[in-house]
Amino acid sequence: MSLQITDLRKRFGETQALDGITFGMEPGTVFGFLGANGAGKTTTMRIVLDILRADSGTVTWQGTPSTDLPRRTFGYLPEERGLYPRMQVLEQLVFFAGLYGVPRRTAAADVRGWLTRFRVPEYADRRAEELSKGNQQKVQFIAAVLHDPDVLIMDEPFSGLDPVNVALLKAAFLEMRERGKTLIFSTHQMETVEELCDAVAIIDAGRLVANGPTADVKRASGKRVVRLGVAGDPELPWLADLDGVHVGRAGRDYSEIEVIPPRDPETILHAAIERGERVTRFEIADPSLEQVFVDLVGRQAAPDEERTLAGLPANGGA
Amino acid sequence: MRLRPANVATIARREYLVRARTRSFRVATVFVVAAAILVTLGPLAVRWFDHDSTAKVGVHVGTTLAFDPVARLDATVNLPATPDGAGPFTFSTVADAAVGRDSVAKGDLSAMLDITRDPAGDLAFTIVSKDGPTLRVPTLLRQASSVLATTDRLLRGGYPADQLSALGIPPAVTVEGPTPAAPGEKPKDFAGEVGGALTGQALVIFLFIAIVLYGQWVAMSVAEEKSSRVMEIVLNAASPFELLAGKVIGVGALGLTQYVAAMVPAVVAFLLQDRIASLLLGAAASTGSAASGLSTGLLVAFAVLFVLGFLLYAVLYAAAGSLVSRVEDINSVVAPMTMVGMAGYFIAVYTASGLIPADAGWVVVLSYVPFVSPYLMLSRFAAGQAGALDLALASGLLVVAIVVCLWVAARIYAAGVLTHGQKPGARALFTAAFASRR
User: Fold this and answer.
1) CATH of B56-167, one of 3.30.1300, 1.10.3470, 3.40.190, 2.60.40
2) Closest C-alpha to B211, from B371, B332, B327, B369
3) In angstroms, rounded to a whole number, what is the distance separating the alpha carbons of residues B297 and B387?
4) Assigned CATH for A3-218
5) Closest Cα in chain B to A316
6) pLDDT (tens digit, 9 = 90+) per residue, B171-199?
7) Is some CB atom of chain A closer than 8 A to the CB atom of B419?
8) Measured between beta carbons, which residues in chain B are less than 8 angstroms from residue A83?
9) Is the ipTM of this complex over 0.95?
């Protein structure tokens, strides 16, 4: 494991924000870090970055403790979005890169490259306060990657972006993975995680509840999903008589049925045929990450409250 | 806590350039420079406006006199400040007291001095003026009256009239300390001490203004950065310690720039005051003593105490700024520091002006205590009560205090910048400073 987080614990006053978090990932991984609001995602990220110190536990990258790593190892897109409102975009990005030791000229050229890639080359000379929220977010992403970090940590990178910009950002993610970079991000958009992430960790109330390759985490619940379509009988009322079967989503063309062990999904096909139904669709699949998340955390993932440049007070704890 | 000088420089550079470009900074600098020059040349302007305005005073003699009162007054109380200038009054005789009163009422005369004789034979005076008895013209005419009364008594007592003019020549007077200077030792320089104390008072005022004004800038800058939430991006790249140091240095350098921009023309105007005075008011208008209190040693002391005093307060202002979530809340968190600074400032000003004896034990002790020492040591040094060794000791203690405060401030800062929406209290401060943060 190249980024290894071991037994992190952190307490804020009465609150045990992190209670023994352990997980790891290989270089070149896109990693989804999931949890409900206040689960401890931001605290974990801040500890990995050494912005915050854990009460106990370790974080290592390629075997070196994160406290001893050069700062440019990591790139960070915080959840608390912010730029210097009155500074020009180019100027402030060159400033951020300068803190990581990137020469001004190199940084300026890279900034222009990134702005062009994000289809906003004309923003270089604008002040940050003149940009829309989505465009400010793109600038913040550029700030996180300008020094070409090995590990990129992003808190809710997709929140507040329109579909076009989400696609641009996803493309950037995949290109960075091609170059062997490790990307960790938190999000509440489970489809995005399923689409991009090689592995995930789910935390709840400061504890790790699932971790591993995305497919394994989905399968680990033991649940399977059956998509069953039957000609002329979309309601499938007879399913109610079977044990270990729960209709998750009833539809006109097909229904999605959760199959709870020890029931074998194939017995549903047998039951349909025995009843003389004409089966138009039968498919055994893993449950969606959304379902796994709800089962493990007990509630839906929801976006955190919005943060803006002139952000209102929010909690700074977990 | 890590400290990479390159990061401190990058942060200080941004702080300096971004702030220097703001319209408010430019406007304020122009204003401060203009104000500094005006204040320096203010006294000169007053002299210029005053220099040929004299009060017209009518003299009515309602008795017999053995001398000419107008000539006597011109030779005594109406002497010009400069050889080719005019005295404060233009005296003329008034034949009729009633006409004189009328002229005062119409404003043709500033005042009338009516001279009569009482039954005992002494002169009696009535000053007719629109001004109250404590104002300048009546006060000067009261002095004039006693000169005339004394002259009259002397002449009646047989004093030779031709020797009247010699009466006003001042005697030779010297003031010296209780122990006369030993051979080879310089005599105690009273005049220098007075000049030094006055200059010291002025420098203490400049120091106080600079520390409070530029300290507030540091706090504002931190609070702005925090409320715009840009802090977390910066914190991944730079340690709180670097951020704090860069901010204090950047804002300090900008403050110093504005300060020098204001001080250089002011000092030049101050030093050229005599020449400007002689140009405007005539060759002999210079007083020659304007810059007597300003010495190289005092300027060095001022520079050292300015830099150390600013650093000490600025790191605490930065820590305070990190505790608030909104720029508007700054005043309440910086209040304790401003109060301590004000206390030092007032003691120093009172010491310099003589209201508090500069050699009082508690003043001497306080002049070494950081937070108030920049003001008090400057004041004592300027008055000649403290020497280079005292200055070195106070500076050393200041450096120690700066290091300690920097350590505490960096911890408060590190915790404060990540905390939003909590009211800063003593307990929060303590927890923040000593929680385990990098």
Assistant:
1) 3.40.190
2) B371
3) 10
4) 3.40.50.300
5) B419
6) 777 777 666 666 665 555 555 556 666 77
7) yes
8) 228, 230, 233
9) no
